[in-house]
Amino acid sequence: MGWFSCFFSPSTKQDDPSEDHYKTVIKISRHEKEDGIVRQKREKDEQVEIERATEESLKEEEKRRLDESKEEGKRKVDDNDQVDTEQIEMNIATEESLKQFQKEDEKRRLEKSKEEGKRKQVEEEEEEDDKGQIKHSKDKQVAPPSICSGCKSEIKDGLSVNDCGDLWHPQCVCCLHCHKPIALDEIARKGKFHRSCYKEHRHPTCCVCQKKIPPTEEGIKYNEHPFWKEKYCPCHDSDGTAKCCSCERLEPRGTNFVMLGDDRWLCLQCMGSSVMDTYECHDLHLEIRDFFDGLFLPVDKEFPLLLVEKQALNKAEQEEKIDYHHAVVTRGICLSEEQNVTSVKERPKIGPNNKLIDIVTETQMVSGCEVTAILIIYGLPRLLTGYILAHEMMHAYLRLNGYKNLKLELEEGLCQVLGLKWLESHTFSSTDAAAASSSSDTPPAASTSKKLDDWSDFEKKLRDFCIHQIKEDDSPVYGLGFQQVHEILVSNHYNLKDTLKVIVNASKMYQFQSFESAHILYVYQSYT
């Protein structure tokens, strides 16, 4: 019993204080570690928040700088047009100096290359002499000629201007507004314009009222002549503004067009070379006959050439029973009927308000066989009168040589071609015209006109205008007829005789087809 009591009796030994301290330390250490982890996590979260805020701040700063840059760019673009003229000219001068330096540098390199080529050629020739061999020289390769981007002709003597990579003759670089030559240092920054022309190009001035064309809700609206390129307010087409019956230009305010006796208007420049009466047209009549002789198309029969007023021309047209001139202004006619014609005998005088007065006329009977007379409206410039006379003279040639019943469009087209050829013969002097015509199958036409250099600028321009009118005409008889005959002429190497044969055959085919169509229609109507 005593052993059992000794074995099972509870211990009376006390706890060690050092052990409790150790446990306390362990517990505190665990709490500190957990607090450290929490603190690190919190610090990490705070760091992430700080970085995110910093990144957003940087983005906002970058966006602000970008907006400021855009505003600065817009401000610079808006200020471009207000840059001082001296600064612009200084920049252009610097650019020109750089181009000149590059050109001189290129020239030096080219000369150096040529010298090196010559040296190599001399060395090769000396080497061949040493070997005693004789070799035939090979054809040298010639560089293709430089072509002007304006007139499309060869640039000689190296006198050229480089504009945006294209080579030009200096005189061919022209302002896109006034069409006059322009130096590179005068070109505006907005394009190939004189600086003074650029503003006018953006907001044109009306050539009639001499005021800026007013803008509308749809922008600045204006009409422009297809050849003269004169811009004007659309209202002037219907407000009674005078229009020249020759060049078709409108009368500017402050100038006085001349009013002819038949209520046509003539500008002062066209008035300067106008043919006013039958006597003044005599030399021109002889010139046109010589022109036809030079083309081997002689008009042997003599008949009168009369200048008449508009009323007399309309009366003769009615008596000839011509009904295909609708929508076309009649300015000349080849008569084949006997009738009384009233012509202008003496040049009229200019009276008050620039109106021609005291027109002296005479009436005469014209008669004959196939051709009785040629009538042309009076008052037109010599060039335009000559073109009309050449047109009507071709009608006379066809009638006098038995070319009847030609298709209307082809006959009028052929007459237009002859008028065009007469105008083009005035492009050269007489010697140049012979040389030009000798290069084609067309016989050389006699030319009694003065040299082109002796013409005024307006006469040269008026000739170009008449040529433009012929080529750009889209009327169903004269315009389309000219295009068809011109194609036939080109396919026959500009030989008029061969062209006439094709027109005769085409007219016969057209008449045959028309007869068949009429016959079929007649048979159909008979059965129905």
TrEMBL record:
Pfam families: DA1-like. Residues 1-20, 32-145 are annotated as: Disordered. Residues 146-216 form the LIM zinc-binding domain. One of its GO terms (molecular function) is ubiquitin binding. Keywords: LIM domain, Metal-binding, Zinc. InterPro entries: DA1-like, DA1-like_dom, UIM_dom, Znf_LIM. Residues 32-79, 96-122 have a biased composition (Basic and acidic residues). PANTHER family: PROTEIN DA1-RELATED 2, PROTEIN DA1-RELATED 3. This is LIM zinc-binding domain-containing protein. It comes from Brassica carinata (Ethiopian mustard). The lineage of its organism: Eukaryota, Viridiplantae, Streptophyta, Embryophyta, Tracheophyta.
